[in-house]
Amino acid sequence: MPLKKDTGTVTGASLKQSTRGKKGGLTGSTRVTGSKKSATEPLIETVPETSTESTGEPTPTSIKEKLQEIAHTTGHIVNGVAATTQAVGHFASRVASTIQGTEADRNPANITDGTLDSSAIMSRASAEIDEAIPRMESGEAIQKGIIIAQQRNFVGVAIANTKLRQDVATLDIEQKRLLGLLIDGKTAQVDNEKKAVSFHRAVVSRDTEISHLENDRELLTQTRIRTEGTQQQTEHIREQEQLKIIKLRESNEKFKLEIESTQYEKEKLKQEVTAKFLAGF
Q1: N or C terminus: fewer CB in 10 A for the chain?
Q2: Average pLDDT over every residue of 14-30
Q3: Would the pLDDT of 30 be above 80?
Q4: Number of domains in the chain
């Protein structure tokens, strides 16, 4: 975590006669005063955050472990500042090496003679404290950092628990989908069985119609045979009817002859009677 930077205010070191006029004399830089910061001097920082986005594992909750972690982090920050300074210088040298220009462009003497305008600088300097920024003691900052870490532990566990419940809800949904698929499978099986029954019924219906067709064909054959017999009888019946007509005609002729014979006998008898009657007179 970043350290709290110096505010650039006037310190006791800047008021010493030996440090006046020196670079860093106004801010009390250790480079000018020669004093060194103690490794155990409290630093204002927050406890490193523990990410719970992926694993959701809680951070350690022991205060002793937190304090040890803060001490290690302080050492890493000091080393990190030095490494950053070296990296910036290295980067600046690399950038400068890539810039092409004239000798006049690269000569600092053409820009300034090294004279420091202290009066102009001091006219812009200010030792006033910005009261709008709240202050906090190092111990309180550490305590609040621990509380925040504990709260992050709680939030991490809550997030993991929520994700677990989401997984359980997803499992419930998938189980219900599985049941639905199983029901769909059984429904499809019943539909297939109904189709099979319909198929067999169609086969039986087809065979029945085939049987009816064969029966109709046999009836048709029998009818044709009867028709052929009837057709063969037609000529004989016609001949028989003709003979009946001839017989009837002959019978009529016979009847005519018998009538004529009767009439002749009657006329003959009449003549005989008449003759006898005339003979008697």
Answers
A1: C
A2: 44
A3: no
A4: 2
